[in-house]
């Protein structure tokens, strides 16, 4: 499922970097629609009349830019800082938090100044040592679909392989992992896959690979010696959720063959804000996501806006159930969090 953009927009300055220049020649020679913008933050040449049309066109648009801010955002609960290697992704998951976060700019962005970004990461590591600093490479994107164009993940994995006090992690739903298998990771990168029940994937995770392909990629990564992780998110507590998620664990464990020594789980239950609900309904007017505020509990968030989460009792049931599944099907695995 390689990402083939319908159009590629270059920030002028990106051509000053070897990767930007290389990509410009590559897309021009392929006959892809190539144009320029003054900044990767202000791209207006994407067609579409409605919000929904604009969204789908943006997801077919690759913007090649220079990441100027090298101040990194924090990234709880999975890491200390975000490592911004890309923004957005060609997937079209209905619940994606980027739908709200990126607002009118959901186009796929890559950055050509990878060495500058990694050099900034080195600064953060130096500041905190001897504490180990962990960076999340998928906070604002799924970085795997654009990897064939950038090589940024491979470079980051190699960089962190050489860092005594730095660790890297990223999560993906995509499966183009072959170029990462031989990178000297030194066990410093945790390679995580986002998985869900086939029903959730089919209904809500458009333009992403099916479960079987994600699991096959996960086993390749584990065989290459990477610490492995599974992110189960969003956990959707629909009718029959217990059996469906048990099947998911059963399927995953069946492919394991006892080969994984270092495995973590992260669990995130489905939640939404009022603003996210509005955006989802605009982009996916016939969504079947459960966005009924009445059936949820309201929880005040960090920045003054609240979110709708599963009621306390259901949440606690689910927590016990999922932690039980992890222990039953993957003894020795570690649950990092359940939120
Ligand atoms: Fe969002 Fe991840 Fe889906 Fe991409 S794959 S749309 S980043 S949830």
UniProtKB/TrEMBL annotation:
Protein name: DNA repair photolyase
Gene Ontology CC: one annotated term: endospore-forming forespore
Gene3D superfamilies given in the database record: 3.40.50.12110, 3.80.30.30
GO molecular function terms listed in the Swiss-Prot or TrEMBL record: 4 iron, 4 sulfur cluster binding; DNA photolyase activity; S-adenosyl-L-methionine binding
Keywords in alphabetical order: Lyase
